[in-house]
Amino acid sequence: MKKLIGLTILLVLSLACATLQAPFQPATPTLEVPPTAEAPTQPVNAAVDMKAKLAELGGVPCEEQTDLTCVTLKVPLNQFDSSSAETLDVVFGVLPASGERYGMFIQAYPGGPGGEGISSAYWDYFDPSVLEHYDIVYYDQRGIGLSSPLACPNAYAKDFLASMTEYDTAGLEGADTPEEQKELVDDTKAYVESCVAEMGIDPAKLAFYGTDAVAEDLDDFRAAIGDEKIWIYGVSYGTAVAQTYAYAHPDRLAGVVLDGTIDMTVSGEQGSLNQEKAFDKVLVAVLNACNDDELCAADMDGKDAVKVYDDLAAQVSKKPMDYVFPLPDDKTVKGIFTFNELEYTAAYQMYSLTGRMLFLKALAAAHHGDLTPMLRLMYNNATIDPATFTYLGDPSFSDTMFLDVLCTDDTFFSGTPEERIEQSIQAGQASNGTVPRIDGSVYTGVSCAFWPSSPKETVKRESLVLKGVPVFVLNAKLDPATPFEDGKAVFEHLDNGYHLYGEGGIHSIFGWGNACPDNYVTDFLVNGTLPNQREIVCEEWADVTTAYAPNPPQTMGDVDNLMDAFTAMDDNFFYLPDFYYSDNSEEISVGCNLGGTFTFGPGADERVVATNYDQCSLIKGLTITGTGSFNLDTGLMTMDVSASGDKTGKLLYTYNYATGESSLSGDYGGETVDY
User: Fold this and answer.
1) pTM for the whole thing?
2) Are strands 471-476 and 497-502 parallel, antiparallel or unpaired?
3) Share of residues in the chain with pLDDT > 70 (%)
4) Does the first or last residue of the chain, that is N or C, have fewer Cβ atoms within 10 Å of its Cβ?
């Protein structure tokens, strides 16, 4: 049966991805936006000397982000009862403005709920003028990271691994038999009880960790600094924080940017159902984009990619697939690939354009009987050690607080806990199976029915109007996690709203170096200029996926020449999930698809990734041993290797990802090579 797999509303814009991609992005063009009569004059908070204020508040360099100054603020545990004396620590990290100060631009940045704001903070994507005039403020919200964390890692790991590996043995996918429904309820109850026990907290206090309390913590920090108004950027779950602050303190906002926007008026269950539809919509669009791409279609043998996915889903929903996965040093590990693992992997890869392309590559390989690329994505996304199948977790994300905040903020259905469980199962089964694809989120209602802080009454919110305050709603029609329709609904009720969106796009569209929406947001922050239209289509966000990089040919007999073979290997080393998503902080070894080991990690220069190939084979008939590097600044990939297999030789290959120039020289099979 299918248990809840947390389709967490995450911002998949890791620092690792940004590090690898940044050198190859084109220069951002200048976008002229005419001022409007209603453009505000930016206030200058000259009365506040931020560096002095931070020192007064006991600020110190943040441990993981030394450019930020961390301030620990004691806030009431219960923000809504002035008689309550108990407090907890909430930590804020600040990058002070480098020049004339306009005020604080608070980053409700982390996805989730559950993402840490300080450890994942970065600011290179901001225009220098924003950094000149604004204090960029990050925070770890209560219960997470540096802010009095709560966690049940052991209970979560056990439950998560069980959800990934178990599979249906009766009926359709999901809890469609009485036995499966009882198992779902019993397992969920046991998980909630063990999680709360492991946290070691009075269950009644979990109600104080919701988003309404987070918004008050932000206002306490505003008051501690002494600013009358703030600007706030919310992305993904952060849009819930930003909107909650706006509901509570509309007079303290100078401007709001919502990116990947949650509709706060939507119920918990409807939000989950909307998200299921959005994931299905994006997945189908990605699969159809493959059909329209000559290289991708060829990797699918000309078959409809939607059918290829549906066939694989149907196959693993009936019976998991056995696999043998390559480890370093020619070791292997056996396992089974389940329907839950396929859905989890597909969902995770839908967040970014390159992630979608990587999923298509993995699907094409699976179509040819090779599950290895799909398994690499699954292990990487789920943070599971392939050798031991141990859940490693993401140190910057709290699985525990994801569920606590979700269940504290919203109800799923109405009535008694038993009635909510019944409705959650009915709704889950109604939307379950292999189509629609990537479903099951509404089963979260079963977990929330047991969670101690779940509201007893249905939570209802009015639409946000925020009279007079400029609000930018950034959106994309192919956002899987925060559906386009939800963001548009938020925009339509705002008094002074601006809707900037892409016809394609991803989950969150600000900060990727595209003139739209970046220049509009920057022009507002720095010059007080508002767009001259309420709705603007960002043409830069029309794509469904990045250009397809074909999988390596199966044998050397399938390539026209040696250069094509090396180009194929280069593409597939570069897009290897372990390599592509690495932050180059440590040495990593992976097993090559057909044997041998690929190792990479920090080089002599911190902007260089050193590579090593030990009897590594991606194409039958070609094995390489040697060294190489990838320069993160110039985009230059080199491979200096000995070749064996069908022929032997010594070869030097280079490719520049910034310019597209390549070369291959040396000897192979007794002949000189010079491309």
Assistant:
1) 0.93
2) parallel
3) 93
4) C
